[in-house]
Write a structure and sequence with these properties.
40% of the residues lie in helices and 14% in strands. By secondary structure, it is α/β, with parallel strands linked by helices. The chain folds into 2 domains: 8-42 and 302-409, Aspartate Aminotransferase, domain 1; 46-298, Aspartate Aminotransferase, domain 2 (3-Layer(aba) Sandwich), CATH 3.40.640.10. The strands form 3 sheets. The protein has an 8-stranded mixed sheet, sandwiched between helices. The chain is globular.
Length: 410
């Protein structure tokens, strides 16, 4: 077996299942899960119509192997969305590549980028830098590419901005890949232009590639849409997008996680290398899914409606929870990143176990989304709540959490 597999950490939801072993949820309440970030809003009719129409109109389309590069119509639709959303003109042939959701692409990209033979002055070996807390795929991708992850904690005092300035120069010199996530999971923080500029300058100095995970970009609560990585580069005159690739997905934007559809865009040289890797990896998207994806990327009305649903939901739930938890409306995404009250001694795991047992509500301990670095785990003492269900269910969950916390305080 590949010895690198032994370096993988248990996935957060495996740890959650183990944490809940022996816990009997209160049967007086129906179960409500805020644990998994799986969209529950209705799939747009235009997407299902396109799926059905494609399968009926071209049944022979499933008889052949689809091209890894995707159909021209899909790449054109992706590029068209980039133009409408960010004002960027991309070449759909050389700068855009469809992928089977951002998760598999984020993982596969590390296998494309990491060069195990490259040396660095301090002898640290191939290094992958990422925020902390973080989406667990970053760590797994780094480990299975033979690299060493380096985690950089977010700073609650700065709206959970990642403290990139704490990374030692020797680590930057060994870094081959940097994962960023904006809007962030789990914090919901959005990176400003100044932060992008700093990272671009570091990339120029040390030669590492930036993988920008932007799958939550269309769920936001401010008037201004979140700044994208390629958009930031263009604002700074970096229109070749050197060493920069962004990753996005229809899962959250269009409520179709089961389609596993997204795309990457950016540096043409990196896209070319990634396409070569994917040709051997066997990552071509089903033609039926491609047809539905074209319909989704070409329509914005359902995205506006989806965002309005989240805004209404967060407007009700956040003030309720803010009365008993350290939590505030995020910049974007569909998570609340809340501090655990002192009554639980800062234990996010105890809070989660007791909440399930007493009120049958599932939340994810923040420590499961982070790693200890510099002597502390930046996710410890916090919980992540995914407000993905309908508003009524999320409000009911919030009411139970408020009662749970108040009962301990009493």
């Amino acid at each position: 077996m590949n010895p690198l597999l032994s370096r993988l950490q248990p996935y957060p939801f495996e740890r959650l299942k183990k944490l809940f072993d022996g816990v009997t949820p209160n049967p007086a309440y129906r179960p409500i899960s805020l644990g998994i970030g799986e969209p529950k809003h209705a799939t747009p009719r235009l997407v299902t119509d396109a799926l059905n129409a494609s399968a009926i109109a071209s049944p022979s389309g499933l008889a052949g192997y689809p091209a890894t590069a995707g159909e021209p119509a899909l790449r054109k639709a992706c590029a068209g969305w980039m133009q409408r959303r960010y004002g960027l003109t991309l070449d759909p042939v050389t700068q855009v590549l469809p992928v089977n959701g951002s998760r598999e692409a984020l993982f596969a990209f590390a296998q494309t980028v990491i060069d195990r033979t490259r040396t660095d002055p301090a002898g640290l070996g191939p290094t992958v830098v990422s925020p902390n807390p973080f989406y667990q795929i970053y760590e797994g991708a780094a480990l299975l590419a033979g690299a060493t992850p380096h985690f950089v904690a977010s700073d609650p005092a700065r709206n959970f901005a990642t403290a990139w300035e704490t990374v030692p120069e020797a680590t930057w010199a060994a870094t081959q890949l940097l994962y960023v996530c904006s809007p962030g999971n789990p914090t919901g923080a959005v990176m400003p232009l100044s932060e992008w500029q700093m990272l671009f300058e570091l990339s120029d100095r040390y030669g590492f590639v930036i993988a920008s995970d932007e799958c939550y970009s269309e769920i936001y609560f401010r008037d201004e849409a979140p700044l994208g990585g390629l958009e930031a580069a263009a604002k700074l005159g970096r229109t070749d997008y050197k060493n920069l690739v962004m990753f996005t997905s229809l899962s959250k934007r269009s409520n179709v996680p089961g389609m596993r559809s997204g795309f990457v865009a950016g540096d043409a040289a990196l896209i070319k290398a990634f396409l070569l890797y994917r040709t051997y990896h066997g990552s071509a998207m089903s033609p039926v899914v491609q047809a539905a994806s074209v319909a989704a990327w070409n329509d914005e009305a359902h995205v506006v409606d989806n965002r309005a649903q989240y805004r209404a939901k967060f407007a009700q739930v956040t003030p309720m929870l803010a009365e008993v938890l350290d939590v505030a409306l995020p910049d974007a995404s569909f998570y609340l990143w809340a501090g655990v009250p002192d009554a639980w001694g800062g234990s996010d795991t105890d809070f989660a176990r007791e909440l399930l047992a007493q009120y049958n509500v599932t939340v994810l301990p923040g420590s499961y989304l982070a790693r200890e670095a510099g002597g502390f785990n930046p996710g410890a003492g916090r919980i992540r709540m995914a407000l993905v269900a309908d508003t009524a269910e999320c409000v009911e969950a919030a009411q139970r959490i408020v009662a749970f916390v108040q009962s301990r305080a009493a």
